[in-house]
Queue: 4 jobs
Job 1
Amino acid sequence: EIPEKQAMEQIFEALGSAEPTAMPEQSLLQYFAGAGIDSRVIDLADAIYANDYGAVSSDVGLRETIQEQRRWKYGEKYLVLSGACLQDVMDELSIGLDVRCGWTVTRIE
């Protein structure tokens, strides 16, 4: 296994045992930088977890990441799309729905 990947996995595992309210309100990237995490490990975390979180580490909250790590119970085998993307899933799920972009929501039924 790649040492950077192993280091990244250990960091995320450790976050699962942290108390969210004891941590400062900051981004995951700020936490990584403050903890002295190697830039290669940060880049790898961005490449892998950006898909999970739908954002890069500078846009993901540390406390939110801790909560997700604490509550995740599905292992590493989850939502794998072969030859598709999440937009394809949304398109399929939206069939038959009246989807309007740019409209102010007044009621949801």
Job 2
Amino acid sequence: MATYLVTGGAGFIGSNLVEALLNAGHEVRVVDNFSTGRRENLAPFSKHIKLYELDIASPDGLGEAFQGVDYVLHQAALPSVPRSIEDPIGTFRSSVEGTLNVLEAARAVGVKKLVFASSSSIYGGNQELPKRESMNPAPLSPYAASKLAAETYCQVYCRVYGLPTVSLR
């Protein structure tokens, strides 16, 4: 049994990951600030998870949440292109600063692997299907740019600090 931490665990994808991990017999921790996630998504599992109501844009409290964690599934974000256009700084803080705080917390405790939820929006208006990693990024919104920047930080933390990361688009 491994210990997983799911950032953004109260969101749609995050809460489904929480359920799958619990069903597989793992210990699960959730970090969420409930800005877009919903408490009712976690209600069925509330007695089986450790919940940290934290904003990843601030490193405060992340150290405690990450103690003893084996794997991180990093889902937390402000998932909206229109919102990112209205509030590019908030999007940057959540996606880029938040990811950097998550990477630092993961590095500090020796997490075995971090999986980052990126976005196909980094490809911009490219209509070619299927999407391939070899396609050039061409972000058209602050949301897409922030996801690309966060992916780059994940790559850097792998190369510089040896923290295994994978980014999913």
Job 3
Amino acid sequence: MSWVRLERGNDWGSIYFALPGQRLNAHGQASAKTQGLPFFEGDEYRVRWPSGEETTESVTFGHYSERVSDHGNSYEVGSMLPGFQLRARGVSWFVPIDAVEVWFETVEAA
């Protein structure tokens, strides 16, 4: 039981998050299916912010896209990133889950 900062993995443009040291499989490869943790809209997580403040937040998803190249072809790929939607003083913004620490017990391995 401890606070962890999840590691971001990239499986050909499919972004996933894993516990520290578990981002790659035994062969050193990225795999969103086998290494990624499951996140679901509305699930609550204990969060520790960079300021040291601790809160409980509900998971939402934000869109991420990038351009990838494969054997001379270039195309757009996208992922849904788990994170937290915050609002302060009339401004709303999305914070990806790897920008903060989460309590280890709240994260289940895939």
Job 4
Amino acid sequence: MRKNARGIPVNNFGDEWGGGVFIERICFEYLPDLGQWEQPERHDRHSFFLLEAGNVTMEIDFQQYHINAPSIIYMHPDQVHRIAAFKNIVVSAWAVTNDNLNAGYLKLLEDILPAAPMALNDRMFALLTEAVSLCIKFSEREKDLLYHSLLKDQINALTALVLSFYWEQRMPSGDRLSRSEFVAKAFKPVNILGNTIGIVKRMGLLDQIQLNALLMKSVEFKNAHDITERLDLTQKRQADSGETEYEIERDILLDMLYQLVKDDVAFVYGESITGLKEQGDQVEVNFKNGAPQTFDLVFGCDGIHSVVRKYWFGAEAAYSRFLQAYFSITIVNKLLIPEYTTQMYSEPGKTVMLNAYNGKTDICLAFFAEQEIAYDYRNEQQQRNIILDQFKNTGWRTAELLEEVQQSTTFYFDKLCQMKMPSWTKGRVALVGDAGYCASPAAGRGGSLAIDGAAALADAFQNCQGDYELAFAHYNHAFRPFIDEVQADVVNFGMEALIPRSQEAIDRRNKEGFGF
């Protein structure tokens, strides 16, 4: 286990575990001392658990499950989990790293995310136990010449069998997280800065954020020959500017917020709204799977492609302002540059940026586009091809990085845009965060703005003694100057710093840093 005070611990595959593939059958009567198992963690591998007997209680991505045998539990490397309790269990467990898994199976595993534990019928259970028993027999033949190859093939066969079960019972695609939603959830850091620091302090979270902050060391501006033309030391930059900033992994912050409200808030997963209707002093909300429910107020905090906004305020196109750029983010589970550093390379109208932290690297590619590009948001390969085509002749390490983009199973693509709305409220419905006033990823403060907006709305309710009409009016009036300033900074400064349009602008940024 690699302990890391700055993030969720990663349980690493030990050298003794068969070179990236492993299987065993284990029995426990009870869990007498939770110890490190009680703490949230994630694996550096794909893990499968066939619960053959007994029951277990565990949290996966902060949702609790009570699981009875026979069941199969699949854990993606990006999923946070912890064991709460179990009793009289028999478990067959196997694990495999990306390098040892069939590429087609990797893609299918991404497609079933988030995969909840699945109860098995008699047919499924019989097939899996038979296959597992055979695989365990192979695992015992360590001295065989082809031991690793045989075990790898059997683990892949087991994975394919589990995949087939999930696809048999898969939910309609609308009930699962989209690829973009999953990547956004994954481990993309959130910046806590400015007004937000005071807000999280009021919430009692500042100490935890400081303890878990990513200690980013530097930003390097590179030329085509991989020579650093400017090095900005993060701590020195913050000291010179007098501004404090904390960067924290999104899942860590989500867990902090969840722990604050879990006893007071009801969470519903795997659901989406299909309509809103205001009726007197309530709003009726229609759901895709469940029965309609009524609420006093509805808050849309569902991101730049907000469904609440679509149903209540109108089509996204009416409020989205294209910033003449597109970007992609690819997360790879290895370090491509020194840890806790950022490197940036630009050519006119194109930028490549690497951000390394906690054993992984974000590959960010952004390019200028005069007009919007027509593409199918459901077709990930088409989006990859757009990036590959745009950057195919770009210098520095770009060719190597495009190989990573092509092979990675974690990819996100979108346009850079802002949400510009005349009002973030209508009737008993209000929008918060990117749904109402996205400043674009170029601002580097999407999560921070969401916290700022939620606090502004909460303060408005307190100041207006709970009168929602007055509170909404105050929210629209008092918070708007701050949003206008942030959005203007992106247009007037942020875009040119992120994607300089000329070699002169690149040279100036590489000489003066982001302060030019």
